[in-house]
Amino acid sequence: MSIRKENVENYEYTTMEDFQEHIINHRRPLLLKNVDIGECKEKWTVDYLAEVLGPNQVKVHVCPVGNMSFINKNFTYKTLEFKDFIKRAAAEVHSEWFLCENESYYLRSIGSDKRGRDVADINKQFPKIAKDVRFPRLFEDKDFFSSVIRIGSRGVQIWTHYDVMDNMLIQVSGEKRVALFSPEDTHYLYLSGDKSQVLDIDNPDTTAFPEFSKATRYETLLSPGDVLFIPALWHHNTVARVFGVGLNVFWKNLPHEMYDKTDVYGNKDPLPASKALSDVNKAIQSLSVLPKTYRDFYIQRAIAALEDAKLS
Predict the structure, then answer these.
(1) What does the record give under GO molecular function (predicted)?
(2) Domains of the chain, start order
(3) Which pairs from 20-23 meet CB under 8 Å and 24+ separation?
């Protein structure tokens, strides 16, 4: 059985207030077309970015193939000068390489602290180009969490995962296919932590992942100037059709005290959820001392209680 596909809904942006009112009741992805994202759309060429950010040191993923897997770790990290990185990422065959001559490159910008204790913020790490961007106003300034630059070679595919904050993905250059899956379909995605074990969503291993075909796949193609709203907990997977540059902006849509203060990537479960999952693991451990008949019986009771809570 093939997976069901739907297009992501287009949304005509007017004001932040209207947008916020819409997403309160409709927690679904939205495609904002032809939004004014500032001068970056015209200015951010390979040559311009290489010149302006040239000596900046960036830590990048290098992979022999485009389909990167965080579960199998089929990539390595390298630190390069930005000008070297972006020229490599824009090229399809390399005269110098680490793994192979057609290796793929991917940058997900991070904070400046070498210990990994601060978040990505284009205004702090890349102030020379931050002025080129006009961010769509989708949230209050006090809720801002991070702004992440994403640059990838043609064919780079980022594994299916979810984030715990709302975010917008701004396509500055190039084209990117984005596939999304509802939180309601989580049990079909074979998660390991926040990542799906289904590495090839276009040709999934139906023997290993027989339930995957029951999920509904929402899809859109981002072009320069497009902005995709990705609600928290929606699983998403991206493929760069060509070399491209994008920006991700994350914001806190829950009360701030619910987030882990040590989270610099926006992917640690909210504190109440983290505690609940920990309690589930403790409950499993407690039941493990019982004979199988008893263990299965009380697991079924626990599942029924959780289902009741879901419906209430």
Answers:
(1) tRNA binding
(2) 4-266 (2.60.120.650), 272-311 (no CATH)
(3) 20/138, 20/139, 23/166, 23/229, 23/231
